[in-house]
Amino acid sequence: MQDEKTYPYDVFISYRWVTPDQEWVREQLYPLLVEAGLKVLLDVEDHVPGRDEIHEMTRSGRESRRVLCVISPEYFEEGRMVGFESLSARRSDPDGRNSTLIPLIVRKTELPEWIRGPIPINWTDSKRYKQEWKKLLRTLGASNLDVPHPDSVQAGPQNPSDVFPSRPTTVRREAVPRPWHNKKLRNAIYVTAVLLITTFSVFAVWQGFTGGSDPIGVNPEATPHASPQPTTAPSASPTATPAPSRPTSPSIEPAPPKKVPPPPPTPQPTETKCSPKDRTLGNC
User: Fold this and answer.
1) How far apart are CA 54 and CA 73, in angstroms?
2) Is 63 a domain residue?
3) Which of 18, 48, 70, 194 is paired with 76 by a 20 to 30 Å CA distance?
4) Which domain holds residue 147?
């Protein structure tokens, strides 16, 4: 017997929030069902913000005449709330006489035992889209049966601008590996930098201790920092030929030492001669 109860909505759509299911439901299935004259309850359009999710799902199933389950392999994953929606609809009509639960299979998957009873709408065969769409609209009680059917979930629309007029077309770029992302290369650069810094530090400390002398024994005259060597006077021998000397940088000759005059000679005592008279008187 057909349920004569009055419902605010003709159908509630239960689906998984995964790609491509959610895009197909929100942008193709939902607008076309509304165009067919049906009152459709969709979570993103009719669930009240701030309310508990389970209460809203319970209200959606209670206020809708039918529950349309968009079934894909992800629909039956554990821990998902869509299972609660379909189970609630199944319990309200266990023998399926009122077609409360309508499975809409959009991608092939293995159905669990509890949902194998209701006859599904098969959307996996593109050759039967027209027949399956008409059958779904009649079951839901649509007033406009001439609405075109949605496209395949896998292939998408033939002309994306007709269904997604405001969605920009983006090109996904593949990730390009960067040299800095290589861990071995980073370690090699780090070790090289540490060795260079250590070498320059040791060289600077060594220069400070040695006063800048040549560390490998090079002739100091060949270096710009070599001090000038003292020159010797040429030999006085007339036969000696002075050897050519390397030009040296001009240097300041030291001042000659001042000549100190010798001290005056000490006067020596002179011996006086005594006469016999002076000796007698004791004068010498």
Assistant:
1) 23
2) yes
3) 48
4) 9-163
